[in-house]
């Protein structure tokens, strides 16, 4: 599976929870902070259809918010 991408903001508690979850599972991820980056904001909106964080891209599966069960299912039980 491709490395997950997490679109975040600095102050988002759910973003922090998602990153901690990936670290706990030993899953490397790429973080894209959209706080002050309009290009990344538009990229995130194009993928998710909304301006909410975190947006997690798991190889094309888009999950908005920290939804542990959906993330685990998208990971396919790998970790």
From TrEMBL:
Glutaredoxin domain residues: 5-63
Pfam name, any one: Glutaredoxin
Any GO BP annotation: cell redox homeostasis
Coiled-coil residue spans: none
InterPro entries according to UniProt: Glutaredoxin (IPR002109), Grx-like_ET (IPR051548), Thioredoxin-like_sf (IPR036249)
SUPFAM superfamilies: Thioredoxin-like (SSF52833)
GO molecular function: electron transfer activity
Domain of life of the source: Bacteria
Protein name: NrdH-redoxin
């Amino acid at each position: 599976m491709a490395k997950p991408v997490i679109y975040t903001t600095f102050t988002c508690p759910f973003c922090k929870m998602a990153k901690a979850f990936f670290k706990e599972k030993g899953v490397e991820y790429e973080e894209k902070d959209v706080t002050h980056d309009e290009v990344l904001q538009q990229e995130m909106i194009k993928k998710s259809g909304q301006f909410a964080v975190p947006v997690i891209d798991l190889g094309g599966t888009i999950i908005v918010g920290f939804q542990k069960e959906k993330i685990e299912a998208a990971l396919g039980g790998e970790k």
